[in-house]
Amino acid sequence: MPPAKKRARSYDSVKTRAAVLAQFRHVREAVAALTPEQLDGPTRLGEWTVRDLVGHLAWMVDSVPRLLAAPAPAARELALLDWPSRTAAAAERIDEHTRGIEAADPAGLYARVAEDYEKAVAGAADERLLQLSFGAMTLGDFLVTRTVELVVHTDDLNAATGAGIPYDRQALAACTRLLADTLAMTAPGGAVEVRIPPYAVVQCVEGPRHTRGTPPNVVETDPLTWLRLATGRTEWAAELDAAHVSASGERADLSGLLPLMG
Question: How far apart are CA 157 and CA 148, in angstroms?
């Protein structure tokens, strides 16, 4: 019998809504200080410039009011843990759209997006369905995915500019937990315990299940290293060599399971 599909943990809606706005504000403040030369500079995301990345970040938040303004679909098609794997199929469309975003005035763009987001979510129910390009999901779940987009791309922006943009604690927590739960769903089991303090602990990989005492197979890392591994920004071997990941036990090698999303 195949293993039961993992049920997503619950997220505090009020905190998630606030976290999206808080992280976007952090990015907005940093973007306002970027010079034209910095905006035209490269990123680690292929051919994207910093300006492309800035536009993409705005779009990730702007998608909330835009989807809420569209008619609601008839039925839910996506659970929260389905989302990470579905993004890969939309990569080409996302790239094309990002390159077409008008970001000549980043400050004006971000001011408009922040205002539209706050107005749109103010009276919207978590159960409201949104029609994404690859399926329908609830607003509550979609907002959790926005924390992933914002935190991961904040890290990209920091890497490209050295801006030192801070991470909202709640946004970083939600991002970490969703990607950790995605790993547990992708490789169900109890042989390996993955610890990402202070936000998440999950068990994964088939094999003997740990019940008490110290687990025989343990992986531990920090949240930013985890999101870089989970999204392919870095590689398992490199982070092990840099001592950003500790892995003990014969099954504690996650290299074959990563990345979880691109």
Answer: 14
Residue 193, both tokens: 């315990």
Rounded to whole angstroms, how far apart are CA atoms 44 and 30?
A: 18
What DSSP element (H or E) covers 193?
strand 192-196
Taking the whole predicted model, whether its pTM rises above 0.90 is answered as yes
Token reading at 6: 């993992």
Question: Which contiguous run of DSSP H or E holds residue 227?
Answer: helix 223-230
DSSP H/E element including 101: none
Question: Which CATH code, of 3.90.1300.10, 1.20.120.450, 3.40.190.170, 1.10.3370.10, is assigned to 13-167?
Answer: 1.20.120.450
Alpha-carbon 34 to chain mean position = 24
Please give the CATH architecture assigned to the domain spanning 173-257: 2-Layer Sandwich (3.30)
Q: What pLDDT, in 10s, does the model give residues 85-126?
A: 998 888 888 999 999 999 999 999 999 999 999 999 999 999
